Amino acid sequence: VVIARGDPKLILEDERRIIVRRSTYIDGATIAVEANKAARDIDRKLVELLKSSETELIVELIAVDLSELVMV
N or C end: fewer C-beta atoms under 10 angstroms in the chain? Predict the structure, then answer.
């Protein structure tokens, strides 16, 4: 599980890549920023599997509007 946040500046233009970043840097492949994990935190077995063109990765994105959770 990786937790990150969205940003109004996300442009999501890249058709081949999605990147979740620990930083706030945004380019066309960035789908989320300020993640709680970096690439080095991903299980190496998963990384090895992803090197194969035979591997299919299924990602589940769950979006939560935190403003709805904050009591005013």
Answer: C
